[in-house]
Design brief:
Layout (H helix, E strand, L loop, with lengths): L3 E8 L2 E5 L6 E7 L3 E8 L3 E9 L5 E2 L11 E4 L9 E4 L12 H6 L17 E5 L1 E5 L2 E7 L7 E6 L5 E5 L5 E2 L4 E10 L2 H11 L8 E5 L1 H4 L5 H10 L6 E4 L23 H9 L3 E6 L3 E3 L3 H5 L14 E3 L5 E3 L5 H17 L3 E4 L15 H16 L3 E4 L4 H4 L5 E3 L24 H10 L9 E3 L2 E2 L10 H14 L2 E4 L8 H16 L1 E8 L2 E8 L2 E8 L4 E2 L1
Parallel strand pairs: 16-17, 16-27, 17-18, 18-22, 22-23, 23-24, 24-25, 26-27
Antiparallel strand pairs: 1-2, 1-5, 3-4, 4-15, 5-13, 5-14, 6-11, 7-8, 7-10, 9-12, 10-11, 11-15, 12-13, 19-21, 20-21, 28-29, 29-30, 30-31
């Protein structure tokens, strides 16, 4: 297949496409065998719609002349933190939220968590974002280098294994004479060679491992000062962090209004108590959204981003329904900065910032989705300075270089795969089954783009439906593959067996090194080294247990 490319754009009030330099744009393509860069220069005013290419010889083939879509494994990286991410066989199919009844989809805004509002799903295609590899009869590795400008969408045709690359440049407006990089990526003919190139272009940095407590996965929003101080008291000197999660605020968006019934003394006593025990104090916020019941949504309707229909852009159905703040508005940015600074000045060291996909859900004139998220995440870093940031519900590519840590999967569920009906919902749904696969398959990003947060482990016996063997697998895999290890358990309730499992898992977390992992059907085989000794474990992805 011959290498081909196509740019689509509007010029002179008409949509056009170009596969070579023309009267509106000129192309400059540079390929050195490991990096492929495409730049354009506008000859007249143009607004970009998209860029795609196909037929590049990415693959190194063995005796089989072509990719084997039923035997090869394709790493498909989901759009944001929570999106299901794993190695797929080519006969797998992606869940398309558009297949749900439209009334259900509209009522719960189920299509707002991922990419369904701007990417057209096709049952014949698997698609992922910004990093991709193939293992099997053929091999390939691709990673986006177009930092801060455009997401790279990798499409795999399930029947043939063919690959198309799409650079999401929609929204870029160029004046005559302006230049723009529309596509830039590294590539290799095998996963191993690609990972070596990944090291070259995204050098690995030392990441401090964090062992901590978070209030969410036991009490959810039902927290108060006595509960938190009680759980804080049960922690020992091995902990680094005590984090207050959702539930301290009156409503999401009203971050300066602490619920006086739950916290009559405010949050300062908890910060002091955490610091007195030698821990960092952490707090959760969702800075880019506000819920419908909030005072902010009621009193500042002009602060919210409006769609083409003039209605505030809804981001999902959490709480009373949550909406995207207009991050181009100076008053909105000032409010977000004031809220974050308030808690930084209070003494909080660690900020878990959630639902960050809201930065790139609305369309912003003159910006790609990638540019909108890049601007928004950089703003958070600017405000918080050297405070530690854990991003969540964020686009991975933009988190690189801005956040210290990133959640790499959806929320852990108290049932292994959550309630049965949730399995038909969006790709960002809560699921321990999904998040453990994300934890393993996104592990190669750890230290390159950020430190990986695999979400919590839970060993308690009450308020949980995970079996003892599933809980053991959860803590073991989190310890092996994460840079953050958190729990929401009250450790005072642990018996001797749970204490021993926690101690051995912490040893894995601090000292073990995973040397390789491979998937075959439903089983992932993991090799790791601890104290100069090699170990192998096998994980059943369907049952959620170690074999």
């Amino acid at each position: 297949m011959k290498f081909e490319y196509k740019l689509t754009y509007t010029a002179a009030a008409k949509e056009r496409s170009s596969a070579a330099s023309d009267e509106y744009v000129s192309f400059d393509i540079v390929d050195d065998g490991e990096r492929h860069t495409v730049k354009i220069k506008a000859k007249q005013d143009v607004t970009l719609i998209g860029y795609s290419e196909w037929g590049h010889d990415f693959f190194t083939k063995t005796a089989c002349a072509d990719p084997d879509p039923k035997g090869d494994l394709y790493f498909i990286n989901g759009y944001q933190s929570w999106t299901d991410t794993r190695e797929y066989y080519g006969d797998a199919r992606e869940r398309n939220v558009a297949a749900l009844p439209s009334a259900l989809r509209r009522s719960y805004a189920l299509d707002r968590y991922g990419d369904a509002t701007f990417y057209q799903y096709d049952k014949r295609v698997l698609h992922g974002y910004d990093v991709f590899y193939v293992k099997g009869t053929s091999g390939a590795f691709i990673a986006n280098l177009n930092t801060g400008c455009a997401y790279l969408i990798i499409e795999v045709i399930r029947r043939t294994g063919g690959v198309t690359l799409i650079s999401d440049v929609r929204g870029i407006a160029l004046k005559a004479g302006d230049e723009c990089t529309v596509c830039d990526y590294l590539y290799a003919g095998s996963c191993d060679k690609g990972l070596a190139l990944f090291d070259k272009y995204y050098p690995k940095k030392a990441v401090k491992k964090v062992f901590g407590y978070t209030s969410w996965y036991n009490y959810y929003q039902d927290i108060n000062e006595p509960i938190l101080l009680r759980d804080l008291e049960a922690l020992d000197e091995r902990f680094d962090l005590f984090q207050i999660d959702d539930g301290y605020e009156t409503f999401v968006g009203d971050w300066l209004d602490v619920d006086a019934a739950k916290f009559p003394n405010g949050l300062e006593p908890i910060v002091r108590a955490a610091h007195d025990k030698g821990y960092q104090a952490g707090i959760w916020l969702a800075p880019f959204v506000a819920e419908e019941k909030s005072r902010l949504f009621r009193e500042k309707p002009d602060w919210f981003k409006k769609g083409s229909n003039g209605v505030a852009v809804k981001c999902g159905s959490n709480w009373s329904g949550h909406y995207a703040l207009n991050l181009q508005a100076p008053d909105v940015r000032e409010y977000i900065a004031r809220c974050l600074t308030h808690y930084a000045d209070m003494g909080f060291d660690f900020f878990k910032l959630d639902f960050l996909y809201a930065a790139s859900l609305p369309d912003y004139d003159g910006e790609t989705r990638c540019q909108a998220a890049e601007r928004a995440y950089a703003f958070l870093r600017e405000v918080l300075g050297d405070k530690i940031i854990l991003g969540c519900g964020a686009t991975c590519f933009n988190a690189a270089g801005q956040f210290d840590y990133l959640r790499v999967g959806p929320d852990v569920s108290l049932k292994f795969d959550d309630a049965w009906y949730m399995r038909f919902m969006h790709r960002e749904r809560i699921s321990t089954k999904v998040t453990l696969q994300n934890t393993i398959f996104r592990s190669f990003l750890d230290g390159h783009w950020f430190g990986n947060d695999p979400d919590v482990f839970l060993l308690r016996d009450d308020n949980i439906s995970l079996s003892p063997k599933q809980r053991q697998a959860l803590i073991t895999l989190n310890a092996l593959f994460g840079s953050v290890m958190m729990t929401s358990d009250n450790l005072a309730d642990y018996d001797e067996d749970k204490k021993a499992l926690l101690s051995s898992s912490l040893d894995l977390f601090r000292r073990a090194e995973v040397t390789s992992y491979t998937r075959r059907d439903r089983v992932i085989t993991i090799h790791y080294k601890l104290n100069e000794t090699d170990y192998t474990i096998r994980y059943d992805t369907e049952k959620g247990v170690l074999l």
